[in-house]
Amino acid sequence: MDAASTATLLAAFTTALVALTGYWINQHAKRREQKSRMYAEALQVIHSYEDLPYLIRCRPASDPETRAALAQQISDVFTKINLHQNLLLMDSHVVGQAYADLFQQTRRHAGPHRLEAWNTPPVATDPEMSGRAYFPYDNQPEQEICLLAMRRELTAWGWLLRPHTHRRIRNLRRQRTPWSEPDFMRETRARLLSPRGGGLNE
C-alpha cells in the first residue's frame, strides 16, 4: 500500500471516528437528560409522600367527601412510587434498590405520622395553621445514598461504575447509626399536639 492510499484510509478512519464520537456524545447527553428528569420526578414523589400527614392534618373537615378526596391523593402517591420503583429498577438495579431503601425508611415514619394526623381534629382557625403539624423523618442517610447512586449513574461510564457503587453503598449502609428523635423535637411535638399548644411562632 502506497503513502497516498494510507493517507486516504487514515483520513476516512479519522472522519468515521469523529462522527462516532459525536454521535456517542449526543446520545449520552440525551440519555442523561432523560435520566435526570426521571430521577427528579422519583425524588419529588418521595417528598409528596412525606407531605401526606400534613395534608391530612390540615384537612378542611372530617366528612366522607374530604376523606374520599384524601384517600385518592394517597392512592395516587403510592401508584407513582410503585411506577418509579419499577422504572428505576429496570434502568439500574443499584439506583432502583437505593430508591426502594429510601422509600422503606421513609415509610417507617410515614405510617405512624398519618395515623397521628388522622387522629388529630381538623384545623379550625387560621392561627392553628402555623406550626401545629410536626412530622420528622429519619431518612437523610438513605436520601444521600440514593443521590450518590443517581449521580454516579449519570456519568458517562455509570454502567461500568455500578459494581463499585454497589460496594460503596453497602459500606455506607453498614456505617449508618441508629437515629432517635432529640429531646427538643419530642418536646416541640408534644407542645404542638397538646390541646392548648401554640404554634412555632409563639
Beta-strand content estimate: under 5%
Mean pLDDT: 83
Q: Provide the low-confidence segments as ranges.
A: 196-202
Radius of gyration: 25 Å
- The helix content is over 70%
The number of distinct structural domains comes to: 1
Q: Which assembly state applies to the chains in this document? A: single chain
Major sheet attributes: none
Shape: elongated
Distance between the termini: 89 Å
Order of helices and strands: HHHHHH
Helix run count: 6
SS-based class? mainly alpha
- What's the β-strand tally? 0
Provide a descriptive summary of the structure in words.
By secondary structure, the protein is mainly alpha-helical. The protein has one domain. Helices cover 75% and strands 0% of the residues. It is elongated. This is Secreted protein.
How do the helices and strands line up, and which of them pair or pack?
Elements: H1 3-57, H2 64-91, H3 93-118, H4 140-153, H5 158-175, H6 183-193
Helix pairs in contact: 1-2, 1-3, 2-3, 3-4, 4-5
Concise description?
It contains six helices and no strands.
